[in-house]
Amino acid sequence: MMAKRTKTTTADAVLAPAVPPALELLDVTAAYGRIEVLHGVTLAVQPGTVFALLGPNGAGKSTALKVASGRLVPTGGCLHVAGTHVNGAKPHRLARAGVCSIPEGRGIFPNLTVAENLRMMTFRGDLPADAVTEQAYERFPVLGERRTQLAGTLSGGEQQMLAMARALATDPSLLLLDEISMGLAPMIVGKLYELVGQLASEGISILVVEQFARTALAIADAAAIMVGGRIVRTGKPQDVTDDVSAAYLGAAS
Ligand code: ATP
Protein backbone atom coordinates (compact mmCIF):
# COMPACT_ATOMS: atom_id res chain seq x y z
CA MET A 1 0.00 0.00 0.00
CA MET A 2 1.27 3.44 -0.84
CA ALA A 3 2.42 5.41 2.19
CA LYS A 4 0.29 8.42 3.00
CA ARG A 5 2.24 11.61 2.32
CA THR A 6 1.79 13.91 5.27
CA LYS A 7 2.54 17.61 5.32
CA THR A 8 5.61 16.94 7.45
CA THR A 9 7.20 14.45 5.10
CA THR A 10 6.66 16.76 2.14
CA ALA A 11 8.29 19.61 4.02
CA ASP A 12 11.12 17.33 5.11
CA ALA A 13 11.76 16.31 1.55
CA VAL A 14 11.87 19.93 0.44
CA LEU A 15 14.05 21.06 3.34
CA ALA A 16 16.41 18.09 3.44
CA PRO A 17 19.89 19.15 2.30
CA ALA A 18 20.75 17.63 -1.07
CA VAL A 19 24.39 17.24 -0.04
CA PRO A 20 25.85 16.08 3.27
CA PRO A 21 27.15 18.61 5.79
CA ALA A 22 30.61 20.00 5.04
CA LEU A 23 31.60 18.98 8.57
CA GLU A 24 29.85 16.84 11.14
CA LEU A 25 30.87 15.92 14.66
CA LEU A 26 28.65 13.19 16.08
CA ASP A 27 28.86 12.54 19.82
CA VAL A 28 32.59 13.28 19.74
CA THR A 29 34.70 12.79 22.84
CA ALA A 30 38.32 13.96 23.00
CA ALA A 31 41.01 14.01 25.65
CA TYR A 32 44.47 15.27 26.45
CA GLY A 33 46.10 12.24 28.03
CA ARG A 34 43.58 10.85 30.46
CA ILE A 35 41.65 14.07 30.85
CA GLU A 36 38.54 14.14 28.67
CA VAL A 37 37.68 17.70 27.57
CA LEU A 38 34.97 17.06 24.94
CA HIS A 39 32.12 15.01 26.37
CA GLY A 40 29.93 14.06 23.41
CA VAL A 41 29.86 17.01 21.01
CA THR A 42 27.46 16.98 18.08
CA LEU A 43 27.38 19.73 15.46
CA ALA A 44 27.01 20.08 11.71
CA VAL A 45 28.24 22.80 9.35
CA GLN A 46 26.03 22.90 6.25
CA PRO A 47 27.71 23.62 2.90
CA GLY A 48 28.28 27.30 2.14
CA THR A 49 27.20 28.45 5.60
CA VAL A 50 28.85 29.94 8.68
CA PHE A 51 28.53 28.05 11.96
CA ALA A 52 29.58 30.01 15.07
CA LEU A 53 30.81 27.94 18.00
CA LEU A 54 30.77 30.17 21.06
CA GLY A 55 31.67 29.75 24.69
CA PRO A 56 33.81 30.94 27.55
CA ASN A 57 37.50 30.29 28.19
CA GLY A 58 38.42 26.65 28.41
CA ALA A 59 35.06 25.41 27.10
CA GLY A 60 36.73 23.14 24.53
CA LYS A 61 36.12 25.19 21.37
CA SER A 62 39.73 25.04 20.13
CA THR A 63 39.81 21.35 20.96
CA ALA A 64 36.76 20.82 18.73
CA LEU A 65 38.65 22.60 15.91
CA LYS A 66 41.69 20.39 16.54
CA VAL A 67 39.48 17.34 16.10
CA ALA A 68 37.94 18.80 12.94
CA SER A 69 41.36 19.46 11.39
CA GLY A 70 42.81 16.06 12.32
CA ARG A 71 45.30 17.45 14.84
CA LEU A 72 43.61 15.53 17.66
CA VAL A 73 42.10 12.10 17.16
CA PRO A 74 38.76 11.77 18.97
CA THR A 75 38.49 9.09 21.63
CA GLY A 76 34.90 8.41 20.61
CA GLY A 77 32.14 9.45 18.24
CA CYS A 78 32.39 10.21 14.54
CA LEU A 79 33.98 12.92 12.43
CA HIS A 80 32.62 13.35 8.91
CA VAL A 81 33.93 15.70 6.24
CA ALA A 82 31.56 16.10 3.28
CA GLY A 83 29.88 12.85 4.27
CA THR A 84 33.08 10.79 4.56
CA HIS A 85 34.02 9.21 7.89
CA VAL A 86 37.49 10.58 8.65
CA ASN A 87 38.24 9.66 12.29
CA GLY A 88 42.02 9.29 12.61
CA ALA A 89 42.81 10.94 9.26
CA LYS A 90 46.03 12.95 9.42
CA PRO A 91 45.87 16.75 9.03
CA HIS A 92 47.54 16.63 5.58
CA ARG A 93 44.89 14.22 4.33
CA LEU A 94 42.13 16.48 5.56
CA ALA A 95 43.95 19.47 4.03
CA ARG A 96 43.90 17.65 0.69
CA ALA A 97 40.17 17.15 1.18
CA GLY A 98 39.83 20.94 1.41
CA VAL A 99 39.89 21.45 5.19
CA CYS A 100 41.93 24.50 6.11
CA SER A 101 42.41 26.03 9.54
CA ILE A 102 43.63 29.38 10.72
CA PRO A 103 44.87 28.65 14.23
CA GLU A 104 44.61 30.97 17.20
CA GLY A 105 47.66 33.24 16.80
CA ARG A 106 47.15 33.25 13.00
CA GLY A 107 49.95 30.86 11.99
CA ILE A 108 51.87 33.32 9.84
CA PHE A 109 55.67 33.56 9.64
CA PRO A 110 56.68 36.92 11.16
CA ASN A 111 60.19 36.94 9.68
CA LEU A 112 59.01 36.36 6.11
CA THR A 113 57.49 39.01 3.89
CA VAL A 114 53.82 39.14 2.97
CA ALA A 115 54.63 37.75 -0.50
CA GLU A 116 56.75 34.92 0.93
CA ASN A 117 54.01 33.99 3.39
CA LEU A 118 51.58 33.73 0.48
CA ARG A 119 53.91 31.78 -1.81
CA MET A 120 54.38 29.12 0.88
CA MET A 121 50.70 28.28 0.54
CA THR A 122 50.79 27.29 -3.12
CA PHE A 123 51.65 23.66 -2.31
CA ARG A 124 48.35 22.32 -3.59
CA GLY A 125 49.68 23.20 -6.99
CA ASP A 126 46.46 23.93 -8.90
CA LEU A 127 47.44 27.54 -9.54
CA PRO A 128 50.80 29.18 -10.27
CA ALA A 129 52.23 31.12 -7.30
CA ASP A 130 51.82 34.46 -9.11
CA ALA A 131 48.12 33.87 -9.67
CA VAL A 132 47.68 33.00 -5.99
CA THR A 133 49.41 36.15 -4.79
CA GLU A 134 47.57 38.35 -7.30
CA GLN A 135 44.22 36.92 -6.16
CA ALA A 136 45.18 37.66 -2.55
CA TYR A 137 46.12 41.26 -3.41
CA GLU A 138 42.88 41.71 -5.28
CA ARG A 139 40.85 40.61 -2.27
CA PHE A 140 43.08 42.42 0.24
CA PRO A 141 44.61 45.46 -1.50
CA VAL A 142 46.48 46.41 1.68
CA LEU A 143 48.50 43.19 1.40
CA GLY A 144 49.51 44.14 -2.13
CA GLU A 145 50.72 47.51 -0.89
CA ARG A 146 52.74 45.74 1.79
CA ARG A 147 53.96 42.73 -0.17
CA THR A 148 57.64 43.29 0.73
CA GLN A 149 56.98 44.08 4.40
CA LEU A 150 57.84 41.50 7.07
CA ALA A 151 54.61 39.88 8.28
CA GLY A 152 55.56 40.41 11.92
CA THR A 153 55.50 44.18 11.41
CA LEU A 154 51.94 44.27 10.01
CA SER A 155 49.12 45.54 12.22
CA GLY A 156 46.98 42.92 13.94
CA GLY A 157 44.17 43.35 11.41
CA GLU A 158 46.57 43.11 8.46
CA GLN A 159 48.10 39.96 9.96
CA GLN A 160 44.65 38.41 10.22
CA MET A 161 43.99 39.35 6.57
CA LEU A 162 47.28 37.68 5.63
CA ALA A 163 46.29 34.59 7.58
CA MET A 164 42.97 34.51 5.71
CA ALA A 165 44.66 35.12 2.36
CA ARG A 166 47.02 32.21 3.09
CA ALA A 167 44.06 29.99 3.90
CA LEU A 168 42.19 31.03 0.74
CA ALA A 169 45.29 30.28 -1.36
CA THR A 170 44.65 26.59 -0.65
CA ASP A 171 41.20 26.85 -2.26
CA PRO A 172 39.49 25.40 0.82
CA SER A 173 36.01 23.93 0.93
CA LEU A 174 35.89 24.11 4.73
CA LEU A 175 37.54 26.88 6.75
CA LEU A 176 38.14 26.52 10.49
CA LEU A 177 38.68 29.89 12.15
CA ASP A 178 39.84 30.25 15.75
CA GLU A 179 39.15 33.60 17.43
CA ILE A 180 39.86 35.84 14.47
CA SER A 181 38.77 38.82 16.59
CA MET A 182 41.51 38.36 19.15
CA GLY A 183 43.24 41.63 20.01
CA LEU A 184 41.55 43.57 17.20
CA ALA A 185 39.48 46.75 17.26
CA PRO A 186 35.71 46.20 16.81
CA MET A 187 35.69 47.96 13.41
CA ILE A 188 38.37 45.62 12.02
CA VAL A 189 36.55 42.62 13.48
CA GLY A 190 33.38 43.78 11.74
CA LYS A 191 35.22 43.99 8.42
CA LEU A 192 36.77 40.55 8.85
CA TYR A 193 33.37 39.06 9.59
CA GLU A 194 31.91 40.79 6.55
CA LEU A 195 34.53 38.91 4.57
CA VAL A 196 33.67 35.64 6.33
CA GLY A 197 30.03 36.10 5.31
CA GLN A 198 31.11 36.83 1.74
CA LEU A 199 33.28 33.68 1.62
CA ALA A 200 30.30 31.60 2.69
CA SER A 201 28.20 33.16 -0.07
CA GLU A 202 30.96 32.08 -2.49
CA GLY A 203 30.37 28.49 -1.32
CA ILE A 204 33.00 28.00 1.38
CA SER A 205 31.72 26.32 4.56
CA ILE A 206 33.00 27.96 7.71
CA LEU A 207 33.25 26.93 11.35
CA VAL A 208 34.23 29.89 13.46
CA VAL A 209 35.14 29.79 17.13
CA GLU A 210 34.78 32.90 19.24
CA GLN A 211 34.54 33.84 22.90
CA PHE A 212 32.86 37.16 22.21
CA ALA A 213 29.87 36.48 20.19
CA ARG A 214 27.99 39.40 18.76
CA THR A 215 29.90 40.01 15.53
CA ALA A 216 30.15 36.32 14.73
CA LEU A 217 26.42 35.82 15.39
CA ALA A 218 25.56 38.72 13.10
CA ILE A 219 26.77 36.84 10.04
CA ALA A 220 26.32 33.22 11.19
CA ASP A 221 23.68 30.91 9.74
CA ALA A 222 23.76 28.63 12.78
CA ALA A 223 25.37 28.71 16.19
CA ALA A 224 26.09 26.67 19.29
CA ILE A 225 27.22 27.48 22.78
CA MET A 226 29.76 25.20 24.38
CA VAL A 227 30.38 25.08 28.12
CA GLY A 228 32.58 22.56 29.90
CA GLY A 229 33.11 20.42 26.80
CA ARG A 230 29.39 20.12 26.03
CA ILE A 231 27.09 21.91 23.62
CA VAL A 232 24.48 23.52 25.84
CA ARG A 233 22.50 25.37 23.13
CA THR A 234 22.32 25.10 19.39
CA GLY A 235 20.13 26.66 16.73
CA LYS A 236 19.73 29.78 14.61
CA PRO A 237 21.77 32.76 15.87
CA GLN A 238 18.63 34.43 17.21
CA ASP A 239 17.79 31.27 19.18
CA VAL A 240 21.07 31.23 21.08
CA THR A 241 21.62 34.97 21.57
CA ASP A 242 19.72 35.09 24.85
CA ASP A 243 21.78 32.25 26.27
CA VAL A 244 25.17 33.69 25.42
CA SER A 245 25.58 35.88 28.49
CA ALA A 246 24.22 33.13 30.73
CA ALA A 247 26.89 30.82 29.33
CA TYR A 248 29.62 33.29 30.17
CA LEU A 249 28.29 33.63 33.68
CA GLY A 250 28.30 29.85 34.03
CA ALA A 251 24.52 29.67 34.32
CA ALA A 252 23.66 27.75 31.15
CA SER A 253 23.19 24.05 31.56
P1 ATP B 1 39.83 29.55 24.90
O1 ATP B 1 38.67 30.34 24.42
O2 ATP B 1 40.38 30.03 26.22
O3 ATP B 1 40.89 29.32 23.86
P2 ATP B 1 38.64 26.95 24.42
O4 ATP B 1 37.17 26.92 24.57
O5 ATP B 1 39.19 27.02 23.04
O6 ATP B 1 39.24 28.11 25.31
P3 ATP B 1 40.33 24.64 24.73
O7 ATP B 1 41.58 25.37 24.37
O8 ATP B 1 39.77 23.70 23.76
O9 ATP B 1 39.19 25.67 25.18
O10 ATP B 1 40.60 23.89 26.12
C1 ATP B 1 39.66 23.01 26.71
C2 ATP B 1 40.30 22.37 27.94
O11 ATP B 1 41.40 21.54 27.53
C3 ATP B 1 40.89 23.39 28.91
O12 ATP B 1 40.65 22.94 30.21
C4 ATP B 1 42.38 23.36 28.60
O13 ATP B 1 43.14 23.67 29.75
C5 ATP B 1 42.60 21.94 28.16
N1 ATP B 1 43.68 21.82 27.18
C6 ATP B 1 43.77 22.48 26.00
N2 ATP B 1 44.88 22.12 25.32
C7 ATP B 1 45.52 21.21 26.10
C8 ATP B 1 46.73 20.47 25.96
N3 ATP B 1 47.48 20.58 24.86
N4 ATP B 1 47.07 19.64 26.96
C9 ATP B 1 46.30 19.50 28.06
N5 ATP B 1 45.13 20.17 28.25
C10 ATP B 1 44.75 21.02 27.29
Can you tell me about this structure?
- The protein is α/β, with parallel strands linked by helices.
- It has a domain at 19-87 and 206-253: Rossmann fold, CATH 3.40.50.300.
- It has helices at residues 7-15, 61-69, 91-96, 114-119, 129-139, 141-145, 156-168, 186-201, 214-219, 237-248; strands spanning 23-32, 35-45, 50-54, 76-81, 84-85, 99-102, 174-178, 205-210, 222-227, 230-235.
- The strands form two sheets. A six-stranded mixed β-sheet has the order 6-7-8-3-9-10, with helices on both faces. A four-stranded antiparallel β-sheet has the order 2-1-4-5, with helices on one face.
- The longest helix is centred in the C-terminal third of the chain and has 16 residues, at 186-201.
- The model is unreliable at 1-8 (pLDDT under 50).
- The structure holds adenosine-5'-triphosphate.
- Adenosine-5'-triphosphate binds at residues 32, 37, 55, 57-63, 211.
